[in-house]
Amino acid sequence: MNVLVIGSGGREHAICRTFGKSSGVTRLFCANGNAGVAQVAECVPIKPDDILALADFATQNAIDLTFVGGETSLALGIVDEFESRGLRIIGPCKEAAQLEASKSFAKDFMARHGVPTAKFTTSHSPAFAILELESGDFGDENSPVVVKADGLAAGKGVVVAKNRAEAVAAINDMASLVGTAAAEKIVLEECMFGREVSLLMFADGEDIALMPPTRDHKRIGEGDTGPNTGGMGTITDASLLTTDELQTIIDTMIRPTLHGCVREGFRFRGILFLGIMMTAQGPKLLEYNVRFGDPETQAILVRLETDLVDICEAMLDGTLGSIDIKWKLGSSACVVLASEGYPSKPRTGDMISGLENVSNVEVFHSGTALSEPPAGAGGSTQPQFITAGGRVLGVTATGDDLATALSTAYSAASKISFDGMQYRRDIGK
Ligand SMILES: Nc1ncnc2c1ncn2[C@@H]1O[C@H](COP(=O)(O)OP(=O)(O)OP(=O)(O)O)[C@@H](O)[C@H]1O
Ligand SMILES: [Mg+2]
Question: What is the pLDDT of residues 254-294, one digit of tens each?
Fold first, then answer.
């Protein structure tokens, strides 16, 4: 089987490594990959938003299975395009991808199907959003409120404002921050409090198979301080959700969501990601994502024991309910090593050393490149990686318990270095 993975980050490196372990895979391609991905897959220089070129590539190279990493291609309708050409692809259709691509679509959907979530309203202009705030529906001028751009904004479209003045500023700044298209509508939400957990699942349109629950750490600084990032680390651990909490989430969120899709005439096939806040009133849904997360994927896939090709086949054939997906018992942790200046101004081009010294971990590459060998250098066999992005590497370990997974990941991280390297020492705490 020839497999194509779409994307270029640590998530896609983890997906490619997992496909690389499958006996069913003959050739593995990644569009467009990175220097780490290039060690396990053939990288193809096609961007995720060029869905016609991706479909042409899949046809010309007899790709039997395509796996979409990120939301951009999904929101553009890559799945509809591939399926219209008879190509097999994992991901939701364009309509289902709206659950992530439009916050207002997602919130209306949750409301229609009784999924517990924060109270919200959608405004079609900044001025109307400010009027909504002044109406008092979201508390007084001292109340926290959450301001969201409707469209995809690569994690930059959400501001948790401490009070009305901050919310007004966020509303006024949103278009310049995320672009006018993504900020065409503004969603205001009541601010919820509690611990967050992410629950991902494989879905075949009817059945789902849950993955281990995960938690990520979004802020750059220890103790959840400083600006937001793409994610500085993740863990998977059974303690994140009790059996009762999990059952409540299945009953109040997952079942209504799947039924809702069917009732609205589309099918959700692919990876569904629930961002959940465990509030004093029970679990409430923060958001849907319609794909794997980065770096959640790294921590999840190191525990997957079942062949990913078999799971993909089951998703495509609608037989997810009849396969038994096995996960390595215990826990896992992914610690992200980021470059100097991340997230505002990441510096690139620093030599990465120590990769050959680590053991018992998987190191997934996010932003790396290969350095040009110096002129006249005799062919060294070790590739010399340099930093090429904000998040550089995801050092990922499993363990019988969380403490073991964390200490294995941190011990490996301490052996890797590059100038300006920064990482959080409190992942999983
Ligand atoms: N109603 C809310 N109350 C409190 N915090 C919130 C609320 N909505 C969002 N947040 C916070 O903002 C974060 C990002 O929100 P959300 O998940 O909707 O945005 P996103 O940009 O789609 O995120 P991602 O990049 O993870 O997909 C949440 O993880 C949560 O910490
Ligand atoms: Mg999201």
Answer: 999 999 999 999 999 999 999 999 999 999 999 999 999 99
Does the beta carbon of 191 lie inside 6 Å of ligand 1?
A: yes
Q: Which helix (H) or strand (E) holds 142?
A: none
Q: Residue 379 has what pLDDT?
A: 60
pLDDT of residue 269: 97
Q: What separation in Å is there between the alpha carbon of 160 and the centre of ligand 1?
A: 8
Residues present in the chain in total: 429
| C-alpha 13 to ligand 1 mean position (Å) | 25
Residue of minimum CA distance from atom 15 in ligand 1 = 158
378 pLDDT more than 70: no
Q: Please indicate, yes or no, whether residues 231 and 250 belong to a single structural domain of this protein.
A: yes
Supply the residue whose CA is at minimum distance from atom 1 of ligand 1.
191
* Enclosing domain of residue 359: 331-372+384-413
Pocket perturbation via mutation, ligand 1, pick of 102, 191, 215, 287 by most ligand atoms within 8 A of CB: 287
Of the candidates 136, 218, 137, 125, the one whose C-alpha atom is nearest the C-alpha of residue 174 is: 125
- Residue minimizing CA distance to atom 18 of ligand 1: 287
CATH number, domain with residue 51:
3.40.50.20
The mean pLDDT value for 115-125 works out to: 97
Domain count, the chain: 4
Mean pLDDT to the nearest integer, 197-215: 97
**pLDDT tens for each residue of 137-164:** 999 999 999 999 999 998 889 999 999 9
